[in-house]
Amino acid sequence: IDARSTRRIAMRRIVLKRISSNPNVTFGVLTNAVTGLPICLTIEKPWKNNTQYISCIPKGIYRCKPIVSRKFGEVYEITEVPNRSHILFHIANTESELKGCIGLGTKYGYLDDKPAVLESKIALNYFKKHIGKNEFLLEVL
Known about the structure:
By secondary structure, the protein is mainly β. It has helices spanning 3-10, 120-131; strands at 12-21, 26-32, 38-44, 60-69, 73-78, 87-91, 102-105, 107-111, 114-118, 136-140.
């Protein structure tokens, strides 16, 4: 087994289970694939056939890596999404703050009468502590 294969075996896996979706927004839960324990909640655009900027990403398995975004600072990029790029996990409370990325939160609620995830900064910081500066695999269900 080469070093790359070994790293792949040891790579952390995170599962995004989408739990609610309508024509305006998609909500989910990020969990540790090994323990099944929740890490944080998610908000995304609704499914619009993987159209850039207006759709959530398709179900599948993606490699994620830590990056430094000029706009969002230290975040994680979801790579290998078909026909898409620059998909990030970042601070966002409502669907209108997203362009195909995934916002993180600690609880669901409303902001300005819009469905939202709340405490997004707290959730992203917790996610960073959980993941560290490591690459990981994201399985979207």
